[in-house]
Automatic annotation (TrEMBL):
InterPro entries: Lysozyme-like_dom_sf (IPR023346), SLT_4 (IPR045795). Residues 2-134 form the Transglycosylase SLT domain. Signal peptide: none annotated. It comes from Desulfonema ishimotonii. CDD domains: Lyz-like. Pfam families: SLT_4. This is Transglycosylase SLT domain-containing protein. Gene3D superfamilies: 1.10.530.10.
């Protein structure tokens, strides 16, 4: 599930950022948010993660740190929003909208967010199936296995 969220947010690009707005349809303007890195985490949320976990040296463009962050955020969503830990659809809604937005159901009128959550759910199932196959291959051959993002 964590990999599915990261893929949806950044396409596994370490330096992903939201596109800039445009001034006068030509000149690049400011970015709409401070989202950055694999998890597309906002500055304030990333700072909360670093303080609460004690992982003060964590970087959003480090895959291990980004994966830990997404796991932390899903755990907090589980606690604050009472979302089951295996519900990729609802955990993504909380990830995208924030826990407060999720609890206010801000996603209800956002078809693109609900579609993204369906995509995360489908990718999560695909990755879980690949993991089972990979584990079986590893046990049989002692070799590795590749995950395909789509």
């Amino acid at each position: 599930m964590l990999m599915a969220i990261i893929y949806r947010e950044s396409g596994f690009r370490s330096d992903a950022r939201p596109s800039r707005t445009r001034c006068l349809f030509i000149f690049p303007g400011p970015r709409p948010s401070s989202a950055y890195g694999y998890p597309q985490a906002l500055d304030t949320t990333w700072d909360s993660y670093r303080k609460q976990t004690g992982n003060r040296g964590a970087d959003r463009n480090d895959f291990d740190d980004a994966t830990d962050f997404v796991g932390w955020y899903c755990h907090v969503s589980h606690l604050r929003c009472r979302i089951p830990k295996n519900d990729a659809y609802r955990l993504y809604l909380a990830y995208h909208e924030g826990q407060g937005g999720y609890n206010r159901k801000s996603y209800r009128k956002k078809a693109h967010v609900k579609q993204a959550a369906r995509t995360v759910r489908a990718l999560s199932k695909r990755y879980a199936a690949q993991l089972v196959t990979c584990e079986r291959e590893f046990q049989e051959t002692g070799g590795g296995c590749w995950f395909w993002p789509f």
